Amino acid sequence: MRQKLVSEGASELSYEIREIVKKAEQVKKLGIEIYWENIGDPIQKNHPMPVWIKEIVAGLAQQNESYGYCPSKGVLETREFLARQTNAQGGVRITADDICFFNGLGDGIAKVYQYLTPTSRVIGPSPAYSTHSSAEAAHASHQPLTYRLDPENKWYPDLDDLYQKVKYNPNIVGILIINPDNPTGMVYPRETLRKIVAIAREFNLFLIADEIYLNITYNGARAYSLAEVIEDIPGISMKGISKEMPWPGSRCGWMEYYNRDRDADFNRLCQTLDNAKMIEVCSTKLPQLAIPKVLGDPRFRVYREDTNRNIGKRSKIISDILGAVPEVTFNETFGAFYNTIIFRPGTLRPGQTMRIANAAVQTLVEQWTSQDMPFDKRFVYYLLGAKGVCVVPISSFCSELQGFRVTLLEEKEDVLVRTFTAIRDGMIEYMASAGAQ
């Protein structure tokens, strides 16, 4: 080409959650049944969508207006409904004009980082959710900036680490919070959120909160929203229906802008995000029309509570199976529907293996692991080949830790027990193998 086409930041765009599917599909073609623990799709994991929700969506699909454009920022009645929900929390107050819809949060996340100046950085948690860390790093053409989540302290943020990194890096303009967290299943205590708000105030930063799992908590936990604690600090809350309704295929998410009148530069960022959506005309309309009808229905609260209770029950089953393995750090989860299991230092070594009965699959796995790679990624490939379980290595979540992420979504209890028993047995076999001496 006459000029270089691809920016330096493009090398930071990766998504192991989907990449590992390519390898799992190769294993599947060789006759191995795959248990998909790589992605948070409740529908794929046998979740029965309530008939009454389907009937609401079907009714909207019969209306002619559902097939036209909507306002660029989103359906007004839906934005008014969502603003009332946020204002009812008793914290920051917003109007419908402070809400903008996107085609899923992935679309919104990409736009936030795209329109920041290249030298401006947003620091996020590690382990990191790949969509955020990749998009932020790509915009900066640099590795992601992260603060540490501590597996030895319930995966809570290391606030000293965050403070020091913000203090000594003047390019940091914002702090990302994912609450409840993906990939760890951690829920931020209110005091932790207040301390992060205090850091933002001290250094004149804005906050981003990915709250896609805000209403998915269980086993006695309660997630506090950014709106409840942000006070007068500028911030953006990212929300959606892909996990909560759940309707992941809707690609329907939105941002709520908080205190945009407090800082002219932050207000320009919000206006830029609105303008970017206006250039695209609008986001998908049908799911927006469904939001007030579904989330405003009294049956939805009952449905969500029952669903959360079931996730909590599954978290206990997984804890019973995996929590007793002494070579790992295991935390019970209280929000979202993931867990991250960390191998203790020195547990994983070069040359460890699992017995793979299928010779063709063994050849594949040996090819994949012949190159230098993080030890946890090697384990994940052997687990896939030997047990047919597809998980994601935690080193792919912008982390120096060694481990893997699973979901808490399998609705069929016998399949859930079988899957996690296979993971446990695979871990024990792998760690007991000779490896390098």
Search tags:
437 residues; Aspartate Aminotransferase, domain 2; 14 strands; 8-stranded mixed beta sheet; 2 domains; globular; alpha/beta; 41% helix; Aspartate Aminotransferase, domain 1; 14 helices
Q: Fraction of residues in helices?
A: 40-55%
The main sheet comes to:
8 strands, mixed
CATH superfamily of the largest domain: Type I PLP-dependent aspartate aminotransferase-like (Major domain)
Q: How many strand elements?
A: 14
CATH class categorisation of the largest domain: Alpha Beta
Flag low-confidence runs. none
Strand content: 5-15%
How would you describe this structure to a colleague?
This protein is of the alpha/beta class and 437 residues long. It folds into two domains: 8-48 and 300-432, Aspartate Aminotransferase, domain 1, CATH 3.90.1150; 51-297, Type I PLP-dependent aspartate aminotransferase-like (Major domain) (Aspartate Aminotransferase, domain 2), CATH 3.40.640. Helix content is 41%, strand content 14%. The chain has 14 helices and 14 strands. The strands form three sheets. Strands 2-9-8-7-6-3-4-5 form an eight-stranded mixed sheet, with helices on both faces. Strand 7, helix 8 (226-229) and strand 8 (235-240) form a beta-alpha-beta unit. Helix 12 packs antiparallel against helix 13. It is globular, with a radius of gyration of 22 Å. The mean pLDDT is 93.
